[in-house]
TrEMBL record:
PROSITE patterns, alphabetized: ENOYL_COA_HYDRATASE
Reaction catalysed by this enzyme: a (3S)-3-hydroxyacyl-CoA = a (2E)-enoyl-CoA + H2O; a 4-saturated-(3S)-3-hydroxyacyl-CoA = a (3E)-enoyl-CoA + H2O
Keyword vocabulary terms for this entry: Lyase
Organism for this UniProt entry: Actinomycetospora termitidis
Family classification: Belongs to the enoyl-CoA hydratase/isomerase family.
Superkingdom as given in the UniProt entry: Bacteria
Transmembrane segments: none
Name assigned to this protein: Enoyl-CoA hydratase/isomerase family protein
Keyword check for Lyase: yes
């Protein structure tokens, strides 16, 4: 798949490994990532041989440090901001709705959109070096998908801890609150994820697909509309403009309040 610029794909028999491949930027999620991940998942669903997907990050430091914040400032006007947020939400939905089980192998920082990707996956394994955070409030935003899914996964109060206070949690704590199902030594992560993928792949594929859909039956896909509206509004605010400028200038933001 030579057309892929932000991710790579490797075949391990019935298990495909999809790698977010921008290690020089801590695997920050650029504008091309979102449609590329959707396309890859669609191809894997249709190929007739893949039974499970492992999603991980390139390098030793990060699963993904989140959205490419510098790129947010390039979005010109409300329509462009809304379209971008819709693109992100469509991709998270594609992970959730994929007929194949998607296993996150979190090898380092999972911040912002990286943490949200883990929330969208069906199973999450983490390196003992992994760290999770949803720190968007620091630049005047909230995680549009994370606020929808994290309460069901880790509870409302832990979600508030991460979203409102921007607190980071390590792999041990993430396992304890249910964000991670298994924590493994860093050097064993990919092998553990592949072994889990092979175990899932050995099961009846229709049963796995139906089981995933039945477990996800309580997910309200319609609720993304208000998240889309809210994030679009925030992206157009003076707070977000200040937050992005502060990030680019490597200084603390100066929010003026409501």
């Amino acid at each position: 798949m030579s057309d892929l610029t932000e991710i790579t794909l490797a075949d391990h028999g019935a298990v495909a490994v999809v790698t977010i491949d921008r290690p020089e930027k801590l695997n920050a999620l650029g504008v091309d990532f979102w449609p590329q991940l959707r396309e890859v998942l669609a191809r894997l669903e249709a190929d007739g041989t893949t039974r499970a997907v492992v999603l991980t990050g390139a390098g030793e430091k990060a699963f993904s440090a989140g959205g490419d914040i510098a790129g947010f400032g390039d979005l010109d006007g409300i329509a462009a901001r809304r379209a971008f947020q819709a693109e992100c939400l469509r991709t998270f939905a594609a992970v959730e709705e994929c007929a194949l089980p998607v296993i996150a192998a979190v090898n380092g920082y999972a911040f912002g959109g990286g943490c949200e990707l883990a929330l969208a996956c069906d199973l999450v394994l983490a390196s003992d070096r992994a760290t999770f955070a949803m720190p968007e409030s620091g630049i005047g935003l909230v995680p549009g998908f994370g606020v929808l899914r994290a309460p069901a996964v880790i509870g409302r109060h832990w979600t508030k801890w991460m979203v409102l206070a921007g607190e980071r949690i390590d792999a041990e704590q993430a396992e304890r609150i249910g964000l991670v199902q298994r924590r493994v030594p860093h050097d064993e992560l990919l092998d553990a994820a592949l072994a889990l993928g092979e175990r899932v792949a050995a099961a009846a594929p229709l049963a796995v697909e139906v089981g995933k859909r039945m477990i996800n039956r309580g997910i309200d896909t319609g609720e993304t509309s208000w998240s889309l509206d809210a994030i679009t509004l925030l992206q157009s605010s003076e707070d977000t403009a200040e937050g992005i400028a502060a990030f680019a200038q490597k200084r603390p933001p100066r929010f003026e309040g409501r």
